[in-house]
Write a structure and sequence with these properties.
20 helices; four-stranded mixed beta sheet
Length: 552
């Protein structure tokens, strides 16, 4: 019986043409629906991302003129800036009067210029860090824009970097070297990506040298880009490598000669012997990357995969740039985290790498979705809105309390009372860790606690033992009238013999309300010890808070 058994319709029949057309129309309708959703979600993503950038800017402006430490080493940094500003070498024999931190010098000289314009205190170096952080965000956006020609995705990438503010220790705007380092690093990467001529390669090498002169962590990312330049044209790699090599070696020799060998001691020898934190071998990947940025890493993988499929305008696969750069930035953060003392700020290069590759991943999803509009692949079109949803959720996981990052009235009161109590101490004061406060009240500042501890624990060429002996001898001899110990006493690095020569007589502020920073090591000046014999001139000031019996 004919007509009861279904048979295949000939491919050229009208019924076949109608079936194919119907399938194509359905696919296009589905793609059109996903495209509309994609556009709407992109608007939401921009709003969410922009809120994070605006929040960071508002926080940075709100606390730029805060007259006390946001982070506990800021005071020591200001001491170094002031030293650079007066024309002295930053590097010299460790002493109880002055010992530098273990970083290269550029940030201190740049901030010295700002200090000359805006005056002393924390404002000038914080302004440098803030502007540098904005420059770093812009460089990430520019790198994404080169590959995608998508301003929206580039903006989102920059905002993702800004959204890592709290995960990076709320550090972008503090008076530390990191933001200038990252700005110069990503600026150098941007020049490398655009380099077509020998002049551009030389410029890239020079900027990378400046990045290294801001922080040593620039070395690995600066090295990995040679491969991309070589693939583009071997002469570019030669010019870049020569410039960076001459800049690195030349600056090292010059600064080492100027400092009589102490530049090499602080910048290379001391960091090389610091302990490795074994738990960070895996914690970096799980706690620092996967936990806060797991969703973004999915987009990163897509973005890096996509760069293998596209070519630069001179025919080089974009992956030759982005894959080594991504790996090099992660390696830079990883080595910083492995070394003892590496706080959340060492993660900046990794956060920048993730922000950059996330933008590429968002674009890759959109490109793949557009190319998949056909009868059997229309569902793939939904990858584009899905990728945007992933990005929105990723931003949501980075939410933090902005108010907690801004100093409140209680901190301002504690700061004013702390300085008033310090000012009331007649004679000489040893305050390891917060020398800027002494400078502000007209007293001689002294070594910053973290720099002191770095030298002692590294003990390169016996300098750690010598500095420890100098401290022990000074305490035993009663060199200072007063010694102010931090609320976390261990960070004052004072010997146990302190109580033989000094006696605790009070606190600068109530014990439960010391002047603490907002991030980093939570310690602030608190307990005042007076020399036993002879006692300080004028006796114990009434401004001190008496000790509760039995406390020290």
């Amino acid at each position: 019986m004919t007509g009861l058994t279904p048979v295949a319709t000939p491919s050229g029949s009208p019924r076949a043409d109608k079936s194919v057309a119907h399938a194509r129309d359905s696919a296009l309708d589905e793609a059109g629906g996903s495209a509309g959703l994609h556009r709407a979600l992109r608007v939401v993503l921009v709003a969410v991302a922009g809120a994070f950038l605006a929040t960071y800017v508002a926080i940075a402006i709100a606390r730029m003129r805060y007259p006390y430490e946001i982070e506990w080493i800021e005071g020591g940094v200001v001491d170094e800036i002031r030293r650079a500003f007066t024309g002295h070498s930053l590097y010299g024999r460790p002493s109880l009067h002055y010992t530098p931190n273990i970083y290269t010098p550029l940030y201190y000289y740049v901030s010295g210029v700002a200090l000359k314009i805006f005056g002393g205190g924390f404002f000038a170096p914080r302004l440098v860090s803030f502007l540098a952080s904005l420059a770093a965000f812009a460089c990430v956006a520019a790198l994404v824009r080169i590959e995608t020609r998508d301003n929206l995705v580039a903006f989102v990438s920059a905002c993702l970097f800004a959204a890592c503010f709290r995960r990076g220790g709320a550090w972008f705007d503090v008076a530390r070297v990191d933001s200038l380092f990252v700005a110069l690093l990503f600026g150098g990467l941007l020049i490398v990506r655009r380099a077509r001529t020998s002049g551009a390669a030389v410029a890239a090498g020079a900027v990378m040298t400046l990045a290294f002169l801001s922080k040593q962590a620039a070395l690995i990312p600066a090295a990995v880009v040679v491969l991309f330049l070589w693939r583009r044209r071997w002469s570019l790699a030669v010019w870049y490598s020569a410039t960076f090599g001459v800049g690195l070696i030349g600056s090292t020799v010059a600064l080492d000669l100027w400092s009589h060998g102490w530049y090499r001691f602080y910048v290379f020898e001391m960091p090389a012997v610091h302990e490795i934190v074994g738990e960070e071998y895996h914690a970096f990947w799980t706690d620092d990357l996967l936990a806060p940025l797991g969703l973004a890493l999915i987009l990163c993988i897509a973005g890096l995969w996509w760069t293998a499929k596209v070519r630069t305008d001179d025919g080089v696969a974009a992956a030759w740039f982005h894959v080594p750069v991504f790996a090099g930035l992660l390696a830079s953060a990883y080595q910083g985290r492995l070394h003892s003392g590496g706080y959340d700020n060492v993660l900046f290069p990794a956060f920048g790498a993730v922000a950059l590759a996330t933008g590429l991943g968002l674009h890759a999803a959109a490109v793949f979705a557009r190319s998949a509009v056909r009868p059997r692949g229309a569902a793939v079109a939904w990858l584009a809105p899905l990728a945007v949803v992933v990005a929105i959720v990723q931003f949501a996981t980075l939410t933090y309390d902005p108010g907690a990052q801004i100093p409140d009235a209680a901190r301002h009161r504690a700061g004013a009372r702390t300085l008033a109590a310090l000012r009331s101490l007649p004679g000489t004061v040893y305050l390891p860790g917060h020398g800027e406060y002494l400078h502000r009240i007209g007293k001689e500042s002294n070594v910053q606690g973290s720099a002191l501890e770095d030298v002692i624990r590294a003990d390169v060429r016996g300098n750690g033992k010598a500095l420890r002996r100098a401290l022990d001898d000074a305490i035993a001899a009663g060199r200072w009238d007063w010694i102010v110990v931090d609320s976390a006493p261990t960070f004052s690095y004072l010997p146990r013999s302190l109580k033989r020569t000094y006696v605790a007589v009070g606190t600068l502020v109530p014990r439960r309300h010391p002047l603490l920073p907002l991030t980093g090591t939570m310690t602030g000046p608190l307990t005042v010890w007076a020399r036993r014999d002879p006692p300080p001139p004028g006796g114990v000031p009434d401004t001190l808070v008496p000790l509760v019996p039995g406390t020290r």
